[in-house]
What we know:
The complex is a heterodimer.
Chain A: H1 3-12, H2 21-31, H3 34-37, H4 44-51, H5 69-82, E1 98-104, E2 112-120, E3 123-131, E4 140-148, E5 151-158, E6 166-170, E7 179-186, E8 197-202
Antiparallel strand pairs in A: 1-2, 1-8, 2-3, 3-6, 4-5, 4-7, 7-8
Helix pairs in contact in A: 1-2
Chain B: H1 3-10, H2 14-36, H3 39-55, H4 66-85, H5 91-94, H6 101-116, H7 121-132, H8 137-144, H9 148-165, H10 167-170
Helix pairs in contact in B: 1-2, 2-3, 2-4, 2-6, 3-4, 7-9, 8-9
Amino acid sequence: MSTDDRSSYLETGAGDGIEGADRIDRIRTVLGREETWAEPPAGLLEDILRETGRNVTPLPTRSPRRSHPGMRVAAILALVLVGLILILGNGQVEEEGTMVAMEGTVLAPAARGQAMVRETPSGWYIRLEVRGLPPAPEGSYYEGWLWREGEGVSIGTFHMRSTEPVALWAGVSPSDYPVVHITLQEEGEGPAPSDRLMMSGTMPDG
Amino acid sequence: MDRETLERFRAGDETAFKAVYQRYGGAVYTVALSILGDRGLAADATQITFVKVWRAASTYDPEREIAPWIYAIARRTAIDIYRKQKPTAELTEIDDATAGPGLEDVWEAFEVRMALDSISDDEREVIRLSHFEGLSHPEIAERLGIPVGTVKSRSHRAHKHLLELLEHLLET
């Protein structure tokens, strides 16, 4: 049985006495399926790098700005309507670090959780495990901040559409910026922190 | 994937991680979509898979093939999402312990996708048009704007190349 006979059978499905024809038929079936040819969404690698804490650049410090009251109300309504409780599972690997209790604000009263803060050679790793915070409404996203009086540094963005804990990174010391804030941001509104504060927590010695 | 890239991947090198994603991202997405049947969930599963791959990179043994390791993480991740989406329905069809024909299909899909991602774009496209879109050689020639004879020779070469890459599937 020559290779040409088998590749011809793979190509056409025609031929008698082909060795392994049943296996080649299976390959032909796979080649006809949509999932074999489907491509992952563009930008997925960037999302992965963001979630792993890569490519997250701390933003310049800024003061919170006021958002339009109507937009704020819309964001609150969207969160209430979603009403979905999302529980993040525990990681498979035990990690040591400083634990920060996170509480939801009036914009997300059901949100609860904790942030584990650990120093690494490249910065501070912050593992956020939250429940009760719904996925960010379409066109918006959540952003984490390390905060001190009047100024904050971004520690990454996420949308809560995954069941995994959120990995964030900080390039400033939590001892200098002892408060962890989670804000709801609107896409296209720039990098400044909004005043839609969803969750907050303070370092134990902060 | 070369040994040096895998060593750098294990050491946490971001460029090497990107290379791993470029090589296996499509195959992982195929696995996820085969199990979940939903592009959005498959994208989530692919993202979670590679986050796990990144976090577990230091545990990877470069002496061993990386594809089965990534496949195992991808399959487990997709099954976990499947269970969360359908906590009571049809679990036995996809349960890891049953190892039924459904899972064999998923493994074959992973292998076929990896092979397709290894051949040239020209060869890949002629196989896609033939098997997925069901076009004849003259129809492919018209679609690609090339002579029918070129399609025939390219298709023959492409299938031979693909079969060589999938030879191990014929032996199982």
